[in-house]
Amino acid sequence: MNLPTANARLGTLLISLIAILFSPVTAAQLSLQTDSVAPERFIAAHGRKAIVMGYASGGLELWAYPLQIISGYELGFRPAGDTTETAGSALLRRVTYDPEAITRTYIGPDFIVRERLFVPLSEQAILLTYTVESRHSIDIVIHFTPVLDLMWPASLGGQSTQWDPAASAYILSEATRKYSAFIGSSQVISHDEVLNSAQPGTPGKRLAFALRAGGNSNPSVTVVVARNDEGSSSAPARMRDLLGSQAKFEMEARSHYAELLGSTLQIETPDESVNQQLAWAQIALDQAWVCNPVLGCGLVAGYGPSRDARRPQYAWFFAGDALIAIEALVNTGAYDRAREALAFIAKYQDAATGMIWHELSQSADPVDWATRYPYMFVHVDISFQYLTVVERYVSASGDTQFLQQHWPGIEAAYRYCGSLINAEDGLPRIPSTKEGGDEQDKMTDDPGLAASWVEASAAFARSARLDRHPQEAEEATRLSEKARSSAARRYWDEARNSWIDGYNAAGRAVSRQGDDGVALVAAHILDQRRSNALLDQLATSDFETDWGTRGVAANSPEWNPASYSKGSVSPVGTARVASEFWSNHRPFTAFPIWSGLLPWGTLDSMGHMHELLAGDFYHQQVESVPEQTWSSAALLSSAVEGLLGLERDADTNGFKFSPHLPANWGSISVRNIKVPGGNMGMTLTRVRNGLELEIENSGSPVDLLWAPEIPLGAHLSGAELNDKPVHSLKEEHAQDTHATLNFTAPHGKSHCLVRYEGGVLLSVSDAAPLLGEPSQRIKITAVAYKPTSLVVDADVSRDAPNSTIGLRTDQKVLKVRGAKISLISDGVYELLVDPAGNPGPAAGEYRHTEIVVDFAAR
């Protein structure tokens, strides 16, 4: 190795180690372990070009994109020299998830085997290492089915398998000789013969080979699975190169993840489980970045088993899923990756119509896929979403060059959206040959699509102004305002004081009580009265479970808690609802909804989140994919946009920081906020009768609007910036109170203090639900505060004997109605609500209650 190269690698490693030391979540804290290793515990070890994943029950599948190389990869163990084999699934006791690899631990009667599943970041190869701890040698028998076939729906014919003694591996090939792969090890002691026999009972396609380790043998052995296509090096040489580079590959992977977390937004709270899941959400986004040899690099929708076909769910490129992920990348300052992901989407835009595509198989020839298969250009809603996300990226990053380079495509997407607009009301309609966001219940239009057009046209107007297209900006602004006005009329039922979920093919209004109505609030379509009415309904136990928001209310005639779309719980929907409660100043409802998503990260594939959970009991929905990219992205975006209230406007060099610090948190820190010329970090700390903000800015000065939540009803008594008085305002809302300050954060360190008196803070338990249990946690639906009283509306489960609300205040409590109060410590109380206090519904259901706390006059 030459000196410059060595120095460069040493520098990269040093940066990574520094990043680990100063990260709120260390490498050890990122390591997740479980001894709940039922046959359905999903695992996946990711690379850019390959993956190994699956369940113990069905064996693993190994891919080097776009090919499935192996399926049904399983282990057996036997003492050396024995013929009796014990299935590995029977001895599996623990699974350890690290960002760069998965380790499964098997415990036999007198031996331990640790299986490390590792995929190099940028190789079409997988390395599976077995380390044995035993006083005698153990034979590890590898069982598998060779596949070597393209991802569905493409397929190859005439695959063949043969043993190559020089490579000590099975060589997999196909008739065109375009693709080839191998599986083997330099330490194979025996292997099955590949037979072409008509004899009854001859083994079929399933093969096995054995390795020996432990005792007097090598302590560890490695299986290599790799693509080795025509024209590549020979299989023996490829095997040697991969094994010889294994340590380097491992170091590169560890350094990559350390650098990832050290360079993007870091959020540190007093709750380590929150820090851990937010860090893993960023890792999940990174692990969705796939490089396909034909299509290029982009974000896939997630990972799951192939089930009955060669389609790993959802390891295709989905533009809609990617746009949700891109929003999270923008929110965390990963602007380079966001730009790459947007460029990939733009690359396959329909040149004829401007429509943005829906899904793209990794085995697709792009032209053939678009013309012969009915999957690519289906969902009209994605084109609207594209316009909004492009504008958000440019506004946050300041990358106006992206607008210039992609303006023709952006304009074409806008014109496509415009072609769907009804001339009378200015709202989009879904053509009979296309679909909207709901694939299960076909609508002609719905509030989500209407809200998307309101936002997309306004976003396009802002983009047009930035790229100096004033006439198009004016047109888009007019269309956005017209749509906003029309949507408020079309999607609200005054008689029911509720929203309309859409219109069916017959033109009839559909009111099934779905959560998509929240889009009307997010797009500022409804006035305050209607927004409050909608949020009041979403806050109830009809929608809210302990693990998130149901897609359809439990009191709807259409509710089906086990279905895909009519009552299951989605992280995307839940995060969106939580964000809107924060945005509409209802933090005591918002935080329990958002925090209900945190246990998802340890439910199945540790660190990752499922696509859906059931709507009645805490468990996975039957169709759900165990690693869904947009689920992790939504958790992360909601934390940044709602919990932190952090937003950047590159055009004005300004930031808004409007944090909602939960009552039982004493502080929260945000680091690596991208500013011109460097990074900015902020630490918010709760002090007696006040909040402190410490700022460290390594870049140029920035304008900061700091608007922290203070106790509801508190009196703002002043503010200081660097020990000098500064102007501040109190912003009062029905269910929360904020202090607002505008100032310039200079280069270097700054200190800001807000002082207040009185007011109240509330909290509810965030204990994780247990598998198979119904929702039981109390739901705060609304809060009202007056100087001498606090009124809390809540839904309480009859199955939960200890429904409690935490109350923090320095005001003297005189009397409580609807609950019993206990003093925990100075200024900290617990309100115990008796679920049997009033006649209520059957077990497993909720009743509504009102709690009134009277205070002495100040």
Q: From the helix content, strand content and strand pairing, which structural class follows?
A: alpha+beta
Give me the side-by-side strand order of the main sheet. Answer: 1-7-8-9-10-17-14-13-12
> How much β-strand is present in the residues?
25-35%
CA-based shape: globular
Mean pLDDT over all positions: 93
Query: Main sheet?
Result: 9 strands, antiparallel
* Distance N to C terminus: 75 Å
Tally of helical segments: 18
Helix content: 25-40%
Q: Could you list the spans in which at least 5 consecutive residues all have pLDDT below 50?
A: 1-22, 839-843
Our Rg estimate from Cα atoms comes to: 29 Å
Number of strands: 50
How would you describe what is shown here?
The protein is of the alpha+beta class and 858 residues long. 27% of the residues lie in helices and 32% in strands. It is built from 18 helices and 50 strands. The strands form twelve sheets. Strands 1-7-8-9-10-17-14-13-12 form a nine-stranded antiparallel sheet. Residues 1-22 and 839-843 have low confidence and may be disordered.
Secondary structure: elements and pairs:
Blueprint: H1 3-21, H2 27-30, E1 32-34, E2 43-46, E3 50-55, E4 59-64, E5 67-79, E6 86-87, H3 88-91, E7 92-98, E8 101-107, E9 112-118, E10 125-133, E11 138-150, E12 160-164, E13 169-173, E14 180-184, E15 188-191, E16 207-213, E17 220-227, H4 235-244, H5 246-263, E18 266-268, H6 272-287, E19 289-292, E20 296-299, E21 302-303, E22 317-318, H7 319-331, H8 335-347, E23 359-360, H9 366-372, H10 381-397, H11 400-419, H12 447-466, H13 470-490, E24 492-493, E25 498-499, E26 502-503, E27 509-510, H14 518-522, H15 528-538, E28 544-545, E29 548-549, H16 571-583, H17 587-595, E30 627-628, H18 629-643, E31 646-649, E32 654-657, E33 667-675, E34 678-687, E35 690-697, E36 702-706, E37 709-710, E38 715-721, E39 724-725, E40 729-732, E41 737-745, E42 748-757, E43 760-764, E44 779-786, E45 789-797, E46 803-809, E47 813-817, E48 820-825, E49 828-833, E50 846-855
